[in-house]
Specification:
By secondary structure, the protein is of the alpha+beta class. It is 31% helix and 33% strand. Strands 1-2-3-4 form a four-stranded antiparallel beta sheet, sandwiched between helices. Strands 5-7-6 form a three-stranded antiparallel beta sheet, with helices on one face. The radius of gyration is 15 Å and the shape is globular.
Length: 156
């Protein structure tokens, strides 16, 4: 499967909304929007993301189809990576390939990442060189509770 990244197009947003509205995907991601079915809030969120010069956001394509997105955001020295892949494509190496592509594009280090009990996501991050450096706890909208999460870091 050919995995590539490109800048986000406005036509990608309805696809992202569908991906991010999936209940199982949200449960796995844990730290999601308060109401993932609120399209107006989703659109306002993406408008801010796409307008920010400090955020690098890319659409993830698999064999030319939009299957998710990946981004780097945050303050210098505390920048984080994030990614969201359509559940249909889980377990096919797409998240790993997308994150590697994003890391090749964004040379800034260190980068942080966070993962709850999503072992697949932790494996993706570790394959890309991230190391667990700590733990945190936060309220996960998709779970309706505070949960533990791992903090991972990529240096040099």
């Amino acid at each position: 499967m050919d995995v590539s990244l490109r800048p986000v197009h406005p036509s990608d947003l309805p696809v992202f909304f569908r991906h991010m509205s999936d209940p199982e995907s949200n449960r796995m991601a844990a730290f999601t929007a308060e109401d993932p079915t609120d399209r107006a809030r989703f659109d306002a969120h993406w408008k801010r993301i796409l307008a920010s010069p400090d955020v690098v956001t890319r659409t993830v394509l698999a064999d030319g189809d939009v299957v998710g997105h990946a981004a780097v955001y945050g303050e210098p020295g505390e920048r984080e990576v994030t990614y969201f892949i359509d559940r249909y494509y889980w377990g096919r190496g797409i998240a790993t390939a997308a994150l590697r592509g994003l890391l090749a594009e964004v040379s800034e280090r260190p980068l942080l990442a966070r993962a709850a009990d999503n072992t697949g996501s932790v494996r993706v991050l570790e394959k890309c060189g991230f190391k667990v450096v700590g733990e945190d706890r936060g309220f996960a909208n998709a779970r309706g509770a505070e949960i533990d999460e791992l903090v991972l870091r990529l240096d040099g």
